[in-house]
Predict the structure.
Amino acid sequence: MSKENFDLWLPREEDKGPLVYDVPHAGRDYPADYNYACDLDALVRTEDRFMDLMLAGAEKQGIPLITAKVSRSYIDLNRPETDIDPRLLRDDGDDPYNKPGNMWHGLIRRFVSFAGDKIYDRLLAAEEIEARIENVYRPYHAELKNLVDETCDRHGYCVHLNWHSMPSQLGRVAAPDIIFGSMGGKSAPQWLLDVMADWWNMHDYDVRQNYVFRGQEITRRYGQPESNRFSVLIEINRALYLDENTYELKPEAAILQQKIKLFSEYMKDVMKDFNPATSELEAEHTLKRTTQGLVYVPR
């Protein structure tokens, strides 16, 4: 299958650990057949802009990383394949997607945002949507599934982290620094969210769990806690690394990059105590402040 629409960074075989990272919404490519009718800058602002850069070098820490190249507004990798608004479709009689009940803000967007301008001044043929699914959506999910399956085969479990960024304002409410989502416990156990939140809280970040963003298709699809397949959504406040007016990286982006690297090392240490046979950590953990920063210490 084509890999031209996503980037893949793999560790050396002997370094592969139990973590897998993916970034589905940071794509900055706008295919020639998109034919959108709105302003390009409006589409750019739908991106989780540069979130992929915050994870650069993950493979050097033994973590496979897959990131989308294509804009989420062209096709959203974090929605079900059948979540298509029939109001987008040209009436060709028997097209397979023209069914009631799909969300209007799903796999293929009609609007830039919930209150924004229409993206298209035309209707789409079923064949056009199928081409996006076949060329962009399915190859990404096939590769991500392969990474999760391979990790489970190697370690007996997998911790998949699905990285996103969010605006600093969520409507009228200021966003926290970080949100962890497990679909209310359906894609990952509570103890896993707690050990992740502990680390960021100890670094003085404002953290929430299953707040506003709880997870979507990717966490639903790859999170199977009963099979030791854990999937957690992570939303990062864009103001930590991005100028939300210019959509350019801020100097503080380097700080966030380093924090994520340290967090990744922490998670690798924590999961050394995970027993796939019991699906639990064998030892309780605590965080200790040292000259090297916060480190994981079994009690």
